[in-house]
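It is worth pausing here to work through a concrete case rather than discussing structure prediction in the abstract. The textbook approach is simple: state the sequence, then state the predicted structure, then interpret. We follow exactly that order.
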Amino acid sequence: MPAHDRSRAYARLVLRIIDARTGELVDAAPARRGLTRVQAHTRGLDPTNLRVLLVADLLVRALELGGTPVWALLTGERQQAELRAAGAALGVRPFEDGRDAGTGLGEAQVLHVVSEGGAAPDGVRIAVAPVHWEASGPPGEADPAVLRLALLARPRSTPLRVGTATLDDAGDTLAHWRRAVAAWAHRPSRPIPDQVRADLRTAWEDDLDATGVLRVLRAVETVPDLADGARFETYAYADRLLGLDLTRDLGSPA
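Step two, the predicted structure:
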């Protein structure tokens, strides 16, 4: 999206997302306070379907941060219980059973999160590219927060290869950020700069760009003349979307 369009999107505080049916950006919540249904469609338990559930979780978080009430549903062909358990370990919010779900009271929008080549329900569709698992052990053996970061580190429209090096890089980044956040917490709190907050919101309101949010965090870590207390507040705020438990090590020695 051009910079001037991104600025307008932030000014309106509207999450816009690409509808896979048309390739066009649409408002994720056309009625600001109207109930929005987010429905994840899965076909079993594997890294691709876990990525679908994670994208749906990210969408729920972004809508709620914008003040939109959300009804989160999971519709799956098989292994729903196993997928729910894997999602919970990954920090995914609870999703209700979407089978035979009727229309929610006051429902203004339905957003379907699907894998590429998967379900094709009527309504806005958010497509998620496949994950190719190449690590030495199964996904269940990976640290859930590390796996979550690895899955968020590439745009959801891009096929993702997850190998041992990918998980190692994500683990190093997560450990580093948690140490930094714990250290910054010892400094006096400072507000998030307006421009930084705008950059974060512009990223996630532009087609749910989690990779853009991660880029903002990397910049905030090293930008000169920013108080450590502001860095802390920035990371804690962004983590409401990312769900990486970046404040886990608070209270540890500086």
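Step three, interpretation. The helical segments are 3-12, 47-65, 80-89, 144-152, 164-184, 194-205, 210-222, 228-242. The mean pLDDT is 89.
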